From TrEMBL:
Stated name of the protein: 2-[hydroxy(Phenyl)methyl]-succinyl-CoA dehydrogenase BbsC
Keywords per UniProt: Oxidoreductase
InterPro entries in the cross-refs: NAD(P)-bd_dom_sf, SDR_fam
Family: Belongs to the short-chain dehydrogenases/reductases (SDR) family.
Pfam family, one: adh_short_C2
EC nos: 1.1.1.35
SUPFAM superfamilies in alphabetical order: NAD(P)-binding Rossmann-fold domains
Top enzyme category: oxidoreductase
Keyword Transferase assigned: no
GO molecular function, one term: (3S)-3-hydroxyacyl-CoA dehydrogenase (NAD+) activity
Gene that this polypeptide is encoded by: bbsC
Length: 249
């Protein structure tokens, strides 16, 4: 899959096992890590977990959905490393509610927390990538963008990332920057009961849940040097769920 030796990889929203799996995978291939989250506990926890694995990482706390917070975070990372080669946008703010019961603030929060981080980070990072004539941007989405009852806010926010990814890929195609989208299906979480896992797995063609490492593998593929001829594409990590999504709820 290629080496990440001396590549600086920025991972945004690091409070889940997927971010940890990605960080471990790219670090094992030589990457330098910058981890950015609004919650200081998330950044300190993942930095500590990685340190236990013998991996050093820069943790930066700030609001990815705020343009000022993003500028400040990018400044800290650039002061430390002097470049950013890979940006991984990992925001995932789940909203579940009947649309009639959804307040305006709920709609705004769904958009703000799912879309704004990718926009502000890309706006700041792309000039850096253009200057260095190299960049990989990987957006992580959710299969719910295809639509589910009670998730109109979340689905709308997630589906917007498809157009964002494709348009940005075209804008940067001549700059040696690629922009791609990994869409995750149902991924195992440590707090799931066996009953919950079996019930969810029964709705997936391969009859099992995905793992954070499955998502990390797809992200790493797009983030590597070897993916230079692939841009604007969608990669489903869903065990075949997307093939019959509308009929399997």
């Amino acid at each position: 899959m290629g080496s990440f030796k001396d590549r600086v990889v920025l991972i945004e929203s690091v409070g889940d096992d997927i971010a940890y799996a990605i960080a471990r995978k790219v670090a094992s291939k030589g990457a330098k890590l910058a981890l950015f989250d609004i919650d200081g506990k998330n950044t300190s926890d993942i930095v500590a977990r990685l340190k236990e694995d013998g991996i050093e990482a820069l943790g930066v706390t700030g609001d990815p959905a705020d343009c000022t917070g993003v500028k400040q975070a990018i400044g800290v990372i650039m002061e430390k490393y002097g470049k950013i080669d890979v940006l991984i946008n990992n925001s995932d703010y789940f909203v579940e509610n009947d649309i009639v019961e959804t307040k305006a603030q709920g709609w705004y929060q769904g958009a703000k927390n799912n879309i704004d981080p990718a926009f502000f980070l890309c706006r700041e990072v792309i000039p850096i990538m253009r200057k260095q004539s190299y960049g990989r941007i990987v957006n992580i989405g959710s299969i719910e963008y295809l639509g589910l009852p009670q998730t109109s806010v979340y689905s709308a926010a997630k589906s917007s990332m498809l157009g964002f990814t494709r348009s940005l890929a075209l804008e940067t195609a001549n700059d040696k920057i690629t922009v791609n989208w990994v869409v995750k299906g149902t991924i195992h979480k440590s707090n799931m009961s066996q009953e919950q896992e079996e019930k969810m797995a029964a709705k997936i063609p391969v009859q099992k849940l995905g793992t954070p490492e499955d998502v990390a593998g797809a992200v790493t593929f797009f983030a590597a040097d070897t993916s230079k001829f692939i841009t604007g594409q969608t990669f489903f990590v869903c065990g075949g769920k997307s093939l019959s999504f509308s009929m399997s709820i």
